[in-house]
């Protein structure tokens, strides 16, 4: 049986973690940049741009958050926990 070091985590993929951070930053900047969307036109279904732009970001933000979550899961590999009966001195 091989020895595993359960005290350290496997190395993370920093590129994927950076991409996840950018995905979380995009909605933040898009909503906080008020001068960009503080206007009446173009209208969509009679609603001013100001309202439908913010409403669209509700869904876009959810999608970006989900994508960032999946990227973080992929970037930080999971090391399965060893069962107590496989370790030295584990209680049963």
Please explain how this structure is put together.
With 92 residues, the chain is mostly helical. It has helices spanning 14-32, 34-37, 49-75. The longest helix has 27 residues, at 49-75. It is elongated, with a radius of gyration of 22 Å. The model has no long low-confidence stretch (mean pLDDT 84).
Which percent range describes the beta-strand content? under 5%
Q: Which structural category fits the helices and strands?
A: mainly alpha
* Major sheet summary line: none
Q: Per the principal axes of the C-alpha atoms, what is the gross shape?
A: elongated
Through-space gap between termini:
20 Å
Q: Order of SSEs, N→C? A: HHH
What is the helix fraction of residues, given as a range? 40-55%
User: Taking all residues together, what is the mean pLDDT?
Assistant: 84
- E-strand count: 0
> What integer value in Å does the Rg equal?
22 Å
Q: Which stretches of 5+ consecutive residues score pLDDT under 50?
A: none
Q: Helix segment count?
A: 3
Q: What structural keywords apply?
A:
elongated; 0% strand; mainly alpha; 92 residues
């Amino acid at each position: 049986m091989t020895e595993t070091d359960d005290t350290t985590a496997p190395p993370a993929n920093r590129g994927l973690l950076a991409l996840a951070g950018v995905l979380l930053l995009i909605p933040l900047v898009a909503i906080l940049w008020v001068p960009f969307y503080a206007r009446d036109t173009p209208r969509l279904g009679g609603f001013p741009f100001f309202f439908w732009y913010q409403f669209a970001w509700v869904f876009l933000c959810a999608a970006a958050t989900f994508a960032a979550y999946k990227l973080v899961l992929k970037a930080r590999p999971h090391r399965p926990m060893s069962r107590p009966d496989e370790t030295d001195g584990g209680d049963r």
